[in-house]
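Researcher: Checking consistency across runs. Here is SatD family protein again:
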Amino acid sequence: MICIITGDIVGSRKIKDSWLLSLKTALKTVSGQNGKWEIYRGDSFQVEVDAEDAIKTAAYIKACIRINKPADVRMGIGIGEVKTKRKKLSESSGDVFVNSGAAFDSLKQAKVNLAIKTENPDFDEEINVLIKLSLIAMDSWGVVAAEMVKLALENENVVQSELAIISKRTQSSVSEALKRARYSEIMEMDKLYRKKLNQILSQ
């Protein structure tokens, strides 16, 4: 089981392309050693990550893009198997690509910026409700909140006092930004997603 995230930048033609460097850096970071990502049609992208990292990866990409206000990102998360692996992601095939495309295509109709699709409709329904709730916070991240979420996800084992030193901010401003971003609640959602995913994978 792997995860393919298909996404695009919202209103990219109307904003400066400072988001492009942020997107490239984010995709390089989240794809890690596998390096499976590509940008196509100027503002669309796909990236392959471990299935259990789907929510955290989406939050990280979102934070990287939201730093470039007013840029935002739409993403469809697909979980499934790969049938044919090719060098380019866009030329590979399998359930995971179908699911990712279907999740992405559902965004406009559902009027949301993030959704997930697997082979398990009950799981999808449950996780998509959590995602919708998390988007209340994520869609309103300002630049500082997005910066702090990005930094916190890059330094997960670091306490807030150390994040303050890295970001050259006071500890209280770091704490306030993460609270405003609902960072701890999003991490709780990530934890629950991993637990539910492991349950369906072990069936």
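Researcher: Does this match what you'd expect to see?
Model: One thing to look at in this run: The chain has a mean pLDDT of 93.
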